[in-house]
Design a protein that fits this description.
It comes from Iodobacter ciconiae. Its main location: cytoplasm. Pfam families: NA37 (PF04245). This is Nucleoid-associated protein. The chain is built from 11 helices and 14 strands. It is α+β, with helices and mostly antiparallel strands. The protein folds into 3 domains: 185 residues, no CATH class; 88 residues, no CATH class; 50 residues, no CATH class. The strands form 4 sheets. The protein has an 8-stranded antiparallel beta sheet with strand order 2-1-4-5-8-9-3-10, with helices on both faces. It has a two-stranded antiparallel ribbon with strand order 6-7. Helix 2 runs antiparallel to helix 3. The chain is elongated. The termini are far apart. The relative contact order is 0.11.
Length: 333
């Protein structure tokens, strides 16, 4: 049984070529819930989840300039889905008129519930020409929605929004600035806090090492490559892209790492400059107890400079510097 229970589904059409005028063709009814409609939504949800390079954020405060929040609130209070979607399209029209490079397509708006989720999915799909065999087994043209080339899409998590989450809107960043109009249409403020995003990236790398069951030496190598690469980006004030991170840090199978970093639970965006303070745990092990604090390079555990004995829970530090040795002698004599 599908987990994408369709509550409402409607499609409107945008007529526009690059650098051309924009017009709308608004539907006057919702799409009937059929097996074909369900397959389409299941496919779009899967594709959206798998897409890399998402932005995340919350509603803009200026509801006059960004009316989506008000429209969603009215919808939650019982407004008609059809009329609400038509109002959304009028706002999208204004955004499209400000983006000359954007092109038209079919705008699918779906409210999806199930398994504790409640969200609205927005996608813009273009048409593509294919071929089919007709009833007489002759080759004929067939026009269909180009779902495989999903580039413009966004999602508003209604449950997270109502429960005061920090970020509940996501959208596909795409390449260049073409998708910026769609972010504005969603009313999404995607201010990126570099420190938090870098911390999430480090957490994602640790999670990946655990899932891959990497031996300690390979994990150290992974973290060392990550630290070196992210430190270079931070020093040069260059923004992160998850695709390039995966290629640089895990070059033999970058998609394995990309899938972890782009998981929706991590909610990691790209486009931020790494905070060099937050990448320190990749190279340094830091811990504390009620009466002491300890920090050392992770490689020390492999070199023997730091030795942990799990049988009696002792930690031995070797090659103590002379100055430290004198201080310890003074404290204990």
């Amino acid at each position: 049984m599908t987990t994408n229970a369709i509550s409402h589904l409607i499609s409107h059409q945008i007529n526009k070529e690059a650098h051309g005028p924009v017009s709308l063709r608004l539907s006057n009814k919702e799409i009937t819930h059929t097996p074909a409609a369900q397959r389409l939504i299941d496919q779009l949800c899967k594709l959206y989840t798998q897409k890399l390079g998402k932005g995340f954020g919350s509603f803009e405060e200026d509801q006059e300039a960004f009316p989506m929040q008000g429209l969603i609130r009215q919808l939650m209070e019982g407004a008609d889905f059809l009329s609400s979607s038509q109002q959304m399209m009028q706002h999208l029209l204004l955004r499209l008129e400000q983006e000359p490079l954007a092109s038209g397509g079919h705008v699918l708006i779906a409210r999806i519930k199930g398994n504790g989720t409640d969200f609205i999915l927005f996608t813009i799909l273009s048409e593509i020409m294919g071929t089919m065999l007709d009833e007489e087994l002759n080759v004929a043209d067939s026009i269909y929605l180009d779902t495989a080339n999903l580039k413009v899409a966004g999602k508003i998590d209604l449950h997270a929004w109502q429960n005061g989450a920090e970020r509940y809107i996501s959208f596909l960043r795409g390449r260049g600035d073409v998708a910026a109009y769609f972010k504005s249409f969603l009313g999404c403020n995607d201010i990126v806090v570099a420190l938090k995003e870098t911390q999430k990236l480090v957490h994602g790398l640790s999670q990946f090492a655990e899932e891959q069951h990497l031996p300690p030496a390979e994990r150290d190598q992974l973290f060392e490559r990550a630290h070196e690469y992210l430190d270079e980006l931070g020093n040069a004030s260059c923004p992160v892209t998850l695709e390039q991170v995966a290629e640089q840090i895990w070059p033999d199978a970058p998609m394995q790492l990309q899938n972890v970093l782009d998981h929706q639970d991590l909610a990691l965006t790209d486009g931020f400059v790494p905070d060099r303070r937050a990448i320190k745990p990749l190279r340094t092990f830091k811990t504390k107890a009620p009466h002491w604090k300890l920090e050392f390079d992770r490689s020390s555990l492999r070199s023997g400079a730091v030795h942990y004995n799990p049988e009696n829970d002792t930690l031995v530090l070797s090659n103590i510097p002379e100055e430290m040795r004198k201080e310890l002698l003074a404290e204990t004599s």
